[in-house]
Design brief:
globular, NAD(P)_OxRdtase_dom_sf, oxidoreductase
C-alpha cells in the first residue's frame, strides 16, 4: 500500500476504507474483511454511530494496532473546548484504542475554535497523532489556521470526477495540507455508466471504479472507498498495477462541474439542515 507523508511526518495509506452509513453488523464485518484483504486505513466518525463496530472489527481481525491508521471525527454538538476533549475520550473507548492516528472536525460549524484548541492539546499529549478538518473550504480553513498554532494535516472534502476540487487542492498545498476524498463515486450509481469513464475503463482493462480511484491517487489525493462486499473491497484495492495516461487524465478533467453534487456547505438551507441533524452516538 502506498503512503503519503503528512506535514508533521506521520504517514497515512493513500487508500482507506470509509464506513459511512454502514450498520453496526455490516461495519464490524467489513472492517475485519478489509483488514484481511490488506486495508490498513479505517475512517469513521462519531456521527456514523458505528465507532464501536469499527473497534470490534479491528479486534476480531487480530491485527496489531500499530499496523493500522484510524481516523474519526468530531460532530457539531461536541464542538467546543471541554466537549471536544470529552468526545475524543469517548471515541477512544468505543474504538478500543489509546490513541487516534487522525482526528478531524467533521463540519465547519459551531465552536470550531474551542474544539481545535482542545485537539491541539491532545495532539501534543500524544493521544492524537495528527489533526485536521473535514468540509472546510479555503476561507474557513484560512480563518482557523491564522488564529491557531497547528496547521491542519488533512482536509477531507467531497472529491470525484464531477467535483474535482482543483483550486482547493492547490490552496491546501500552500500549507502542505493533504486533500482527502470522501464519496469518490459521487454517491451516484450513474457515474459507473458515464461513457467517457467507461471508455477509459475498457482501454485499461479495469472497472470504472478502479479508474476513478486511480485518477485520485495520481493526483496525490488520499481516498476513502466504501463497500460491504468482499469482491468490491478487493477490486477497490487493485489499483496499484496500472496508470492513467495524460489523455485519460485530461478526459476526466473535462468532467468537472466545479460544484458539489451531494451537499452544498455554503447553502444556508443545507447548513441549517445539517446543524439540526440529531445522531444518537
Amino acid at each position: 500500500m502506498e503512503k503519503i507523508k503528512l506535514n508533521n511526518g506521520v504517514e497515512i495509506p493513500i487508500l482507506g476504507l470509509g464506513v459511512y452509513q454502514m450498520s453496526k453488523e455490516e461495519c464490524e464485518n467489513s472492517v475485519c474483511e478489509a483488514i484481511r484483504l490488506g486495508y490498513r486505513s479505517i475512517d469513521t466518525a462519531s456521527a456514523y454511530c458505528n465507532e464501536e463496530a469499527v473497534g470490534s472489527g479491528i479486534k476480531k481481525s487480530g491485527i496489531d494496532r500499530k499496523e493500522l491508521f484510524i481516523t474519526t471525527k468530531l460532530w457539531i454538538k461536541d464542538a467546543g473546548y471541554e466537549s471536544a476533549r470529552a468526545a475524543v475520550e469517548k471515541s477512544l473507548r468505543k474504538l478500543q484504542t489509546d490513541y487516534l492516528d487522525l482526528y478531524l472536525i467533521h463540519q465547519p460549524y459551531g465552536d470550531v475554535f474551542g474544539a481545535w484548541r482542545a485537539m491541539e492539546e491532545m495532539y501534543k499529549e500524544g493521544k492524537i497523532r495528527a489533526i485536521g478538518l473535514s468540509n472546510f473550504f479555503p476561507d474557513r480553513f484560512m480563518d482557523l489556521t491564522l488564529h491557531n498554532t497547528v496547521v491542519p494535516a488533512v482536509c477531507q472534502m467531497e472529491v470525484h470526477p464531477y467535483c474535482q476540487q482543483i483550486a482547493t487542492q492547490q490552496f491546501l498545498g500552500g500549507y502542505d495540507t493533504r486533500l482527502e476524498a470522501w464519496s469518490p463515486f459521487a454517491q451516484n450509481p450513474a457515474i459507473f455508466q458515464d461513457e467517457k469513464l467507461k471508455a477509459i475503463a475498457a482501454k485499461t482493462g479495469k472497472s470504472v471504479a478502479q479508474v476513478i480511484l486511480r485518477w485520485l491517487i495520481q493526483r496525490d489525493i488520499i481516498v476513502l472507498t466504501k463497500s460491504t462486499h468482499t469482491e468490491r473491497l478487493r477490486e477497490n484495492m487493485d489499483v496499484f498495477d496500472f496508470e492513467l495516461d495524460a489523455d485519460d487524465m485530461a478526459t476526466i478533467a473535462k468532467l468537472d462541474t466545479g460544484r458539489s453534487t451531494i451537499f452544498d456547505h455554503r447553502d444556508p438551507a443545507c447548513v441549517k439542515m445539517i446543524c439540526e441533524a440529531q445522531f444518537d452516538y
